[in-house]
Amino acid sequence: MNVSCRVRYVHVYRGRREDVNLQIGSYAKRTTLFTDALERGNISLQIKNVTLADQGRYRCFIPKINTNMNDAVVQLLKIV
């Protein structure tokens, strides 16, 4: 891995808008953040048209949340 590479993300939402410049290309137009639910504490991200290539660990990071837990890890698995 080239450490000089920019960090890329499945989805970036900051400043009350999405930032597609940092998004991994294969996730373009496949992710939806339910922004209307954010003020109720619901931070749900939908990934559409999921493929085997999407399998793996996903980290959700919320830097400005007022709690000790500002991130979580989700494992996406293939179920047979």
TrEMBL record:
Which protein, by its recorded name, is this?
Answer: Uncharacterized protein
GO molecular function term, any single one? signaling receptor binding
A GO term (biological process) for this protein?
regulation of cytokine production
Matching InterPro entries, A to Z? Ig-like_dom_sf, Ig-like_fold, IgSF_BTN/MOG
* Segments traversing the membrane: none
- Keyword Membrane listed? The answer is yes
Which UniProt keywords are given for this protein, alphabetically ordered?
Answer: Immunoglobulin domain, Membrane
Q: Which GO terms describe its cellular component?
A: external side of plasma membrane
Domain of life assignment? Eukaryota
Kindly list the places in or outside the cell where this protein is found, as annotated in its UniProt entry: Membrane
